[in-house]
Amino acid sequence: MNSNLKLILVLLGVSAAAQGLGMILPEYYARLFLEGSINAILAVALNLVNGLSGQFSLGQAGFMAVGAYVSVSVDVFLLSSLHGSPAGAQIALVLSLAAGALASALAGYLVGLPSLRLRGDYLAIATLGFGEIIRVVILNIQAVGGARGFIGIPTTTTTFLVVFVLVLCVLLTHRFVMSSHGRALLAIRENEIAAEAMGVNTTYYKVQAFVVSAAVTGVAGGLFAHHLSIITPSSFDFMESVTIVVMVVLGGMGSVSGSIVAAFLITFLPEALRPLQDITHVDLRMVIYSLVLILMMLLRPKGMFGRKELWEMVKKRAAGSR
Q1: Burial class of 192 by CB neighbour count within 10 A (0 to 12, 13 to 18, 19+)
Q2: Residues forming beta bridges with residue 151, ordered by sequence position
Q3: Higher pLDDT pick, 3 / 36
Q4: 202 membership: H or E segment, kind and range
Q5: What angle do helix axes 60-73 and 27-50 make, rounded to 10 degrees?
Q6: Residue 50 in contact with residue 56, Cβ under 8 Å?
Q7: pTM for this one?
Q8: What is the largest CA-CA distance in the chain?
Q9: Which residues are bridge partners to 230 per DSSP?
Q10: Percentage of the chain modeled with pLDDT above 90
Q11: Of 50, 71, 170, 207, which has the most beta carbons under 10 Å away?
């Protein structure tokens, strides 16, 4: 009980501090910090599949789209009456995020159950196909805007809520890894055939991780949609899935803290290089951005943190300095 109370206090304290930081920072940097936090949620969610269970999914943009469109549809079409007050708007946001998470989890189950019997490149192709199917379907649904996009979305996403979700994801992921379910996933990652020989139901555990990852991605999609005033199908194309994969690989496959650091790095780096365009009169941002990624893969092929966590390395260094 005391442990759970401490976790709740940590959640609220970190989220409140982040909200205060967002109020102090200039609007531009506050928006970047919020977008980096949303990207970090996406990276942590994908790390559960690509890093901890050893699979390779390329369909996260599809789950993000499901969560985003279901969330804003519920908010705009069903819960608009709650927007009469700030508290009502936040309640509507939380309820719509829950709806988006459930829809994404259902989509993850429907996709994961057949496709997770595949391995390696076959799984990547199957999930990639799912993401493109979702995008094309949304493109042809006029009720949610079709190709022109969904407009008039309430911009109710707050830094407090985004950081709250991010910290909650980190804590739950850590506990999940330390549980018997997490140990089963790690066994599957190391050697799936050996895990099956030891009696581990590999399909069950992989689908479980896939569904949880899809649900969290759906929440991130809903937060992203309520951060902007408009979303379009092009916001959830193949390149969005690739960007999320790059965050996980750059941070380290299996490292939650590495995924978070990489998410913020990838969010801030292109913007940090923007002044270079004023000097050279040529937009070299993506060239430098790509070179940095190539150098990282050459110098640190396992990512920045490998499979280690930042807090483990800090704890080890602190113990060594005594």
Answers
A1: middle
A2: 230
A3: 36
A4: helix 202-227
A5: 120
A6: yes
A7: 0.91
A8: 64
A9: 151
A10: 26
A11: 71
Give kind and range of the element (H or E) at residue 151.
Answer: strand 150-151
Least confident of 11-15, 34-38, 101-105: 11-15
Q: Which distant-in-sequence residues (6+ apart) come within 8 Å of 101 by Cβ? A: 67, 215, 216, 218, 219, 222
Name the pLDDT band for 234 (thresholds 50, 70, 90).
confident
Q: How far apart are CA 266 and CA 35, in angstroms?
A: 11
Instruction: Please tell me the distance from the alpha carbon of residue 262 to that of residue 39, in angstroms, as a whole number.
Output: 9
User: The tokens of 101 are what?
Assistant: 């998470």
Counting every residue written for the chain, the total comes to 322
Residue 157, both tokens:
């996403």
Distance, CA of 318 to CA of 322 (rounded, Å): 7
Tokens representing residue 16 in the block? 């409140």
User: Which amino acid, 244?
Assistant: I
Orientation angle between helical segments 202-227 and 86-115, nearest 10 degrees? 150
Tokens 């994961």 sit at which residue?
112
The pLDDT score that the predictor gives to residue 250 is 87
For the stretch 146-190, pLDDT in tens is: 888 898 899 999 999 999 999 998 888 888 888 888 888 888 888
- Which burial class, exposed, middle or buried, applies to 291 when counting CB atoms under 10 A from its CB (0-12, 13-18, 19+)? exposed
